[in-house]
Amino acid sequence: METTRLIIVAVGGQGNLLASKVLGEAALLSGVPVRMSEIHGMAQRGGVVESAIVFGDAKSTIISDGEANVLVGFEPSETLRALNKCSADTTVITNLAPLPPFTVAIGRGTYPDLDRAQDLIKAKTKRLIAFDAVDLATTAGSVMSVNIVLLGALIQTGILPVSKTDVEETIRTKTKKAFVNANLKAFELGYGAAANA
Amino acid sequence: MLLLGNEAIARGAIEAGVAFATTYPGTPSSEISLNLFEVSHESDLYFEYSTNEKVALEVAAAAANSGVRTFCMMKHVGLNVAADPLMTLAYVGVKGGMVILSADDPSMFSSQNEQDNRYYGKLSGLPILEPSSVEEARQMTAEAFDLSERLGEPVILRTTTRINHSSAFVELGRLTPRKTKGDFKKDPFNLVTVPAVSRRLHVRLLENWDKAQALAETSGYNFTDGAGSWGIICNGVSYGYVSDAVKELGIADKIRVLRLGFSYPTPPKLIKDFLTSCERVLVAEEGEPFMEEAVKAFAQEAGLTLPIAGKGEGLFSRLYEFDPAMVRRVMAGYFGVPHTESQAPDLSDVPEIPQRPPNLCAGCSHRATFYAVKKAAEGEETIYPTDIGCYTLGFLPPLAMGDFLICMGSSVSTACGFSKATDKKVISFIGDSTFFHSGMTGLVNAVYNNHNFTLVILDNGTTAMTGHQPNPGVDMSNFNLSGYGRISIEAVVRAVGVEHVTVIKPYKVKKSIEAVKAALDHKGVSVIISQEMCTLYARGLKQLKVRAFAVTDKCKNHRDCINQIACPAFYLDGERVQINPNTCVGCAVCAQICPENAITPVKVKQAG
User: Which residues contact residue B303 at a Cβ distance below 8 angstroms, ignoring those fewer than 6 apart?
Assistant: First the structure.
């Protein structure tokens, strides 16, 4: 089976690990081999959390530079930072709502201009799908669902060997009961956003 | 089931009927013990968070010598702390199966070094098992207990971060019933390691080493894939990268891969036979050339002159973890196979992206303590030895409170040295869990040798960094657990004989600064105990009373708040400082330092 490599980057607290877990479980439901790795040593302290998810027949659980088929960024500057994982064949999906790192507030760095960031990503990869996922999550009923909004967009691209219904089923069974409805709505809104992008 | 590597390892131990487990938490091993801690609440598994790794290994050694299946887990540097019992426990051996897990951290995702703990196998004479995948980690953990009982020796299970923190589908095995009580039979001439006994025990250890080597020769964990006259010898995660590269380079008919999972004692016959059938061999292992040196020595013994390579220029590095593309590139280069490099884009025109280092949380009491110490020490030339925990992050600007760190507990003992070897004011920082782990002995040394420094103990009531595990100072009723003791840090410090001891509440800024000043004025050892519960932990326990603050119109943009305490709840809205009401917990430290008193609590809207 063809191997598909996905990188998810996020800021600690944005729910990257839950998103990865949902994808992993959905892959199992779809009968697709899956391996994942994550670096989350100090996620709770506001650092970057990176997950690598490898679908199909591979033994590696990490993804080298230039080898991601898809990059999903939960925060625009982190998407830009992870461009080294991409190639001209990579599809990039990013949330556009910034979470400026604290270094910006104390004058140690400038937050990148979002239009320029999008132009750069478009120029260096196959396709960019960019939208405000916080806005859609809020519409869905919970700001916490940004991760699921982006999953919706990811599944819409059809790049992963995982079906929409299997992800929805996983959201129903593996996310917190109180959030299932908001998550399903968030998933649908993200799916729609990618369809219209 | 989709399991994290560490969950698979915990599951493997349970399947083996482990009855006794000890640890000191440390990433990347922490989730193994978190799982066993939870299992112990609902079963007759005995589990303890021990004071440090040496204690954990000694507690476990006694259980294993009573015939109980025992699991002792730690991060790689933890095994340095436990090295003393490890070396002689190998002489004494065990009755019940005992597995010692060492979680190594190539690339140092959350560690102070990337030492290769396979050398502990060689140093102690104990066998090493190394899984290559999450699935294998479960099975290997379970079987390690059998191997240990067969040899009468502890077995080292060596993992790396990419095993511990990867997830994959794992088929569960059957559970073996636990045997929770053993018996200790007196046998002092084999169990009390006086020189005359140890001389015999060393002979026994070497005999066991031979037995282990014979088992490694035929172990199912040491296997060969593929066919051809090129050879690769690999272990651990590198096996996955090698296998993927063989497929992607299309050389499955040219290359044979020898995977060593029972990697020490390295099996000579297996390797010599492999070498005999190869024209050229590459050794793919992260870290040090551990297997490479053994393989080359075996080749010499067998009179084989084929090229064997591993570490070196254009080959593998001793630095950091491997990745699939790097392994593929080295293999293609060594065997002369054409291959196209994956094309990462040219990023030279991408603007510099501001760094996002991990930061102390909004309202973290460590920040308040650092601020108080900094203010109290203003005008003095200082050295700030620090220690291992969240507060290590205080070394980053703008707090910049951390000048020297080598290992757990070193803040106290290095303070002794700095205060003698320099004339600077020495103020060191240590957390509550780390103080119990290995700070207490340093403090005894300081009082005994009459050193001159101030030790600040940051007591946030938990082991925060690794995931809020308990420690001897923690109120175990927070975990709904009873039957535990609780050690008062203040009582320990006073009992040791420290003359100047002050307990501060760090959110009270002025009082804290005064207390630290008084401690700094004391000649000799002084201790400040800064008590305030970790905000994350308090939130988890639903004990956090959040009351967000906001910047009012009185603000004249001095920015003392943002520039001096740098709480991540602050952000800039244009040129104005604002506080994010969702992250502010209301510690009120900023409100106390604002020269315009411009930071005040947000008025709570009445419901309805």
Answer: none
Mapped onto helix, strand or coil, the DSSP state of residue B2 is strand
- Segment B555-567 mean pLDDT: 93
CA distance A85 to chain B (A): 7
Tell me, yes or no, if B483 comes closer than 8 A to chain A by beta carbon.
no
In which band, very low, low, confident or very high, does the pLDDT at A41 lie, cut at 50, 70 and 90?
low
Share of chain B above pLDDT 70, in %: 99
Q: Which pLDDT value is given to residue B574? A: 85
> What percentage of chain B exceeds 90 in pLDDT?
94
Q: B340: pLDDT confidence band, cut at 50, 70 and 90?
A: confident
In the predicted model, what is the mean pLDDT of chain B?
96
Using CA coordinates, name the residue in chain A closest to B466: A41
Tell me whether residues B168 and A39 touch, CB distance under 8 A: no
Distance CA B469, CA B25 (A): 7
To the nearest whole angstrom, how far is the Cα of A138 from the nearest Cα of chain B? 15
Give residue B608's pLDDT: 41
Mean pLDDT of B186-199: 98
Within 10 angstroms of residue B340's Cβ, the number of other Cβ atoms is 6
Closest C-alpha to B526, from B494, B574, B556: B494
**How wide is the angle at C-alpha B297 spanned by C-alphas B291 and B300, nearest 5°?**
140
Q: What is the pLDDT of residue B161?
A: 97
What is the dihedral angle through the alpha carbons of B358, B364, B367, B368, rounded to the nearest 10 degrees? 170
Listed residue (B426, B409, B431) closest to B365, CA to CA:
B431
Position A197 pLDDT exceeds 70: yes
Q: How far apart are CA B317 and CA B498, in angstroms?
A: 48
- Residue whose C-alpha is closest to residue B105's, from B127, B132, B76, B134: B76
Please give the backbone phi and psi of residue A114, each rounded to the nearest 5 degrees, phi first.
Answer: -70, -35
All domains in chain B, ordered by first residue: 2-217 (3.40.50.970), 220-335 (3.40.50.920), 365-478+486-540 (3.40.50.970), 549-601 (3.30.70.20)
CA distance B520 to B393: 23
User: What was the ipTM of the complex prediction?
Assistant: 0.96
Residue B174 bridge partners (DSSP): none
Is residue B389 a contact partner of residue B464, using CB atoms and an 8 Å limit?
yes
Chain B residue numbers touching A42 (CB-CB < 8 A): 110, 358, 465
Which tokens in the block code for residue B410? 């070193």
Closest CA to B80 of B104, B64, B50: B104
Cis peptide before B324 (omega within 30 of 0): no
Cα B171 from Cα B173, distance rounded (Å): 7
pLDDT, mean of residues B146-161: 98
- Using an 8 Å Cβ cutoff, are A139 and A152 in contact? no
For range A62-73, the mean pLDDT: 97
Question: Tokens standing for B361?
Answer: 């949380």
A7 φ/ψ angles, rounded to the nearest 5 degrees:
-115, 135
Shortest CB distance from A24 goes to which of B167, B342, B360? B167
CATH number, domain at A30? Answer: 3.40.920.10
- Residue B361 distance to chain A (closest CA, Å): 6
**pLDDT tens column, A133-169:** 999 999 999 999 999 999 999 999 999 999 999 999 9
Cβ-Cβ contacts under 8 Å, A112 against chain B: 351, 353
Q: What domain range is A118 assigned to? A: 4-196
Ranges assigned E (strand) in B509-548: 525-531
Residue A13, pLDDT above cutoff 90: no
Distance CA B217, CA B540 (A): 50
Q: What share of chain B is helix, strand, coil (3-state, %, to 5)?
A: 40, 20, 40
Query: What pLDDT sits at residue B607?
Result: 47
CA distance A60 to chain B (A): 5
Number of domains in chain A: 1
Contact A27, A162 (CB under 8 A): yes
